[in-house]
Amino acid sequence: MGNLRKPTGHPRFEVAEPSFVVIWETTKACDLACAHCGAEPIPSRNPDELSTEAGRALIDDVAALGAPPPLLLLTGGDPIKRPDLRELIAHAANRHVPVALSLPGSALLTPGIISELRAAGLRAIALSVDGADSAIHDAFRGISGVFARTMKAWEAARKCGLTVQINTTVVSANLMELPKIAHQVLERGAMTWSVFPLVPTGRGSGLERISEQACEDLMNFLYDVGATISVRTTEAHHFKRVFMERSILERRGIAHDRVMPLGPAYHAMRAALEPWAAGTHARRTSIDISAGPDFVFISHTGTVHPSFLPGSHGSVLQEKLGEACRESNLLKDLREPVTFAGRCGVCEYSPVWSGAYALSADALGRDEMSGYVPSSFQDEVAEVSSAEAQAPRDRGRQVIRH
Prior knowledge:
- By secondary structure, the chain is an alpha/beta fold.
- It has helices at about 50-65, 85-95, 110-120, 135-140, 145-160, 180-190, 210-225, 240-250, 265-275, 320-325, 330-335, 340-345, 375-400, and strands at about 20-25, 70-75, 100-105, 125-130, 165-170, 190-195, 230-235, 295-300, 305.
- It contains 13 helices and nine strands.
- A hairpin with a 5-residue loop joins β8 (about 295-300) and β9 (about 305).
- It is globular, with a radius of gyration of 22 Å.
């Protein structure tokens, strides 16, 4: 293994700075039974969830975090179950807080409701598509008819001018659905396709996650697709590393399949993707992943969490949101990549993804989804570059001998 290298610098974050996104789990009430759900929803609303008054106060806290204020993402459960949803969206709009909605294929999400929420001030909607047809998607969601409702909501949202994001949770069972979902995003139109390798919490603890190799294959597949449609990942810092590595290879004119450790899933997904229109879309990836710097999660009862990590770090019922974030020791640690354990702590890429966390008891331990060995990529590139630089000289000498 070669010497560790730091390929790029990293901006400093202050805990007091607003997160890019504040996610509020408005309710756990939901009529679906999604296999991967970390929220463990229930059919009826919890009487302890934030009231309309407390919700308005939370929105005021978000507005006070900075100028411009961060995006407020309302989620659940099924947010449509809250009869005050329009009021909350209107209050956010009046406070100049950009507000978006993320929800499953709710039977309550009719085209009429979508138009009403848009009129109240809703800017964007995120819909979940975990299979390319009803057989896969509805099995994932536990109820039939969800896929058809989601497609209708997608069309209605676009017609009324909402920005649409498509979310896909990835497990072993639906990995090969991704090429077909990519085509749907391309054909139906969406601002972004957000791909989320499963974080096994709640019901999702019983699902089979993709392997380290499949995760590497997935990140490379998403890089390829990102030349045609906008792609991002959630809780998958591996994409930032692959993004940087593939960019380096392109600049040096080295074929990625000669250097990247690609497995059978990558080749199968690429084959299933064809025919795929070549694109010139400008690829983008965030400087960090979400946990820590990028977003904070507010539960339905008001507890504050950095990303989807267990354990609360304050409550908006007892203190202002900004204060809860400032006082969280875990949030502070997640912004300091030097504190990570194992090979993640010595990886040359750690400065560009503060906010990673492990699924083990140690939140700052090694990420079990990453099979990357620190420094291995740049050593491999150096070997290939040397070999390719030597090849033309060999051919030249052969021509001279003739």
